[in-house]
Predict the 3D structure of the following.
Amino acid sequence: MNMLSLFPAIPLLMMLGLWLSKSTRQIHAVMVTGASLLLALAVLLVFRYLGLREAGESAAMLFTESHVWYAPLNIHYAVGVDGISVAMLLLSAIIVFTGTFASWQMKDQVKEYFLWYCLLSVGVFGFFISVDLFTMFLFYEVALIPMYLLIGVWGSGRKEYSAMKLTLMLMGGSALLLIGILGIYFGSGATTMNIEEIAALHNIPLSLQRIWFPLVFVGFGVLGALFPFHTWSPDGHASAPTAVSMLHAGVLMKLGGYGCFRVAMYLLPDAAQELSWIFIILTTISVVYGAFSACVQTDLKYINAYSSVSHCGLVLFAILMMNTTASTGAILQMLSHGLMTALFFALIGMIYGRTHTRDVRQLRGLMRVMPFLAVGYVIAGLANLGLPGLSGFVAEMTIFNGAFMHDDTFHRVVTVIACTSIVITAVYILRVIGRILYGTCENPEHLKLSDATWDERVAVICLIVAVAGLGLAPMWVSDMLRSSVSEIVAHLIN
């Protein structure tokens, strides 16, 4: 069996183990074992990938395997990874692992919750290893379906409304995506669905590219919170359970940016060059609008959700710059945002579980009551606003450097506008930290609350180490990404 096929296979085996489990203890054992195996496999894949590159392996995709699935449409179960996919698989494994511990205190329908959680993981891992357009789309759908139930059943607040809104908007994006994928397949000669083979053909007429590019970019962009299709995201985040918010913001939204880069721009490069200015304007609005919206929110989850709209907008903004530096920054931003947002949502879920409120106005003086969670929140906030030494700084500076390399007025103006988001981010992050953590506790009930339990500490510490690690030692990730990014960018430009 190909090593990559183990990534969707392990969550499927976890689902079987969960189905056979008779007690909460057994459920936890299955989840920890499976999540640990996925994390170990992702780390092993990183080392093997880097080893092959150092040995001189120059193929675009490594660990490739292909089996005919449906011959009439040339659909294959085709897998392979490059530096970008390897980084995304590592991110997904970290968040599935930490999300397991963040859900440790779950009481209601525990088995069913983790079953859907594992199915969501199958879709995410399968998407990142796929190099066949239809297989990728299939895994994309598998990742979306569980979200409805995970939010609608185990969520909080207006959970049914949020779940329905999320599902309808993402399914609308999927419909556009399917039309675009079929357009790419038939436009390229209807001989293959393999992404690398279609890119090598480079034979889709510009007249068709102009039609399919907006459909595919918007289809994936809906999941990447592209303005004005972002409205599902804050509601979905706010209502989702803690681990689902972590996986949703940390990984699921990255499918959008990854798909835009890997499919829309790589396979339709001529239209990407011609129409990029439209989407650059929309992504610039996303970046600034998300940051300003976060400033006026009072719910902790909504603050982080609008922050995600801003940061995911920055990912799409960077890949539209179509140079190696900005695009490498985009992938680093995916990793950075995935880790720090997962940390944010984990901490918010833990605070909410104790105080039963996410309203900033009712939370004061938590540093004295729960210092571990408070310090974790401060670190997550500092990473979010781009403090040097943490992951956010590396990603954002790389993006802005790459974007500013364009010497025309349009690109430089939008880059300057996007840069203002850093200042706005600092405003809402420092305001929340100052009010929640360092204010005087006004609710006597909050003084009786306990700090983080051992399972919560495991999740938080793992994510803090990852955020700090990416910030302090970013070069090995950047170098791993650069070769893969430069190949796609070279194809876009030439």
User: Anything to note?
Assistant: Strands lie at 62-70, 75-81. The chain has one domain: 3-493. The chain has a mean pLDDT of 83.
